[in-house]
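Title: Request for sanity check on Penicillin-binding protein prediction

Description:
We are preparing a figure and want to confirm that the structure record we downloaded matches what your pipeline produces today. Could someone re-run it with the sequence below and paste the raw structure tokens into this thread? We only need the token string, no images.
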Amino acid sequence: MRDLFYTGIIHNWKRVLVVCSLLGILSLLIFPPKNAQGGKAEPGQSSQLQAVDHYLDEAIRKLGVPGGSAALVYQGEQVYSRSWGITGESEQTVTNETPFLIGSLSKTLTAYGIMRLVDEGKVRLDVPVQQYLPWFSLPDAKAASQITIHQVLTQTSGMSESAGLNIADQGASDQLAIQRTVRALAKEPLEAASGNRHIYSNANYAVLGAVIEEVSGMTYAEFMESSIFSSLEMKHSAATVRQAEAIGWEPGFRSWLGLSIPSPIPYDNGGAPYGYVVSSSSDLAKFLIAMQEPGKVISADRTKEMIQPAVSVRANHYYGYGWRITQTDTGETRIWHAGSSPDARSEMVWLPESGWGIVLLTNQNNRLEEARLSIVATGIQDILLGSEATPISFPPIMERWLAVGGVLVLMAITVWLLTSFRRGMETKLRRWVWFTLGGVFFSLAGLVIPVLLYLTQVSWHTVSLFVPDLAEMVLLMVIFLSMNGVLSLIKASTIPSIKDIQKS
């Protein structure tokens, strides 16, 4: 009987092969491999990736962003991918190939591009910027001549944070935008002598973008495409508005009191080197893999140089070339950077000792909510390092609710002032009080915005871009204060003086 069975299989081997193939395909459809989207995980990682998946379930719900994408890399291979929600205006489903605006993660890519030129012998780190940009100038000409490539990479040039904010988010769409942006620094004074201390400023990486253009003979976008993106097979990354739109990028959303509002903020070609590169989670995973396994684009020596603690930012917090270097709670080196734009927020983390890399991209932002994605990134990191992630709990945003409360109080005062016209208040003291109140209201109306800008050390342009709800609450406060001032003065003018009363 057994011989007949084997004989039947031999004579009908083609049919048996077809049936087995169909059963195999059916089993894959019913029981897909756990990491089908992101590569294969080692047996010991399965529980970690499942824990990350469950953690993201809660994080996605609490973040409340319209769309996002995550990727995990382990020892040179992407092992996990997850995307959720929708893109911008078209409301397409987000995938791991959806391009997001990555904010200051652009700085890591710009530094990578500079190191490519260093490897090729076209740029030296210890020479002044003016050797490559003879036209580069600042109000202090001597100081400008002393700033080196190393100093702009490590953000120790002395250029101020406000200088970087003043040139940012201009919405330029032409190919000369980066050059024009750097030339605008000619009117921005240094905050410190070059080399003295770390001052995080977009201005530094705008300068590096101009250096790339001058040395390569290409636009920044062309250089990044030909020398970085293509070499790493980053097919969903771009550095100009035209290229970004061609690969499917759309403006994201701005959080207004927790509500998702479609963003009207345009892409800025001039900001690409420091904050306006677009990329996908799968592409940034490839970039992390290139950092883990150097040699394909830049050498191991240059890669290592990028992540050395070149300058101290504060205790146990350092800056390298486009990367921040700190430590985890367990003492492992943590190399990372965060990215923020008016309508997107991102995190990228590399843990070189354990071999893990994390990419998190979302298409919504508000400066008051930025810490939330950092909390999620840290939670994922804890899971990957074998610790239990702290339960996701976002701190209340007191600034936002204080502003809302202030507007409500001023509205109540306005209503009270309007109703007070029905009551007679005909003493000299009360007339004087109304005049005083009017002066106080007008003074406060004139001080609210200057005080806010002094406390935050940024321009009103930046406040309105990154904190739109707070900005509009402040404007409402100014409007109500001014209305109350007008009403108080009108009230004072309608109350007769003592002399008028005596004459009557």
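Thanks, this matches our download. The chain has three domains: 1-32, 53-384, 398-503.
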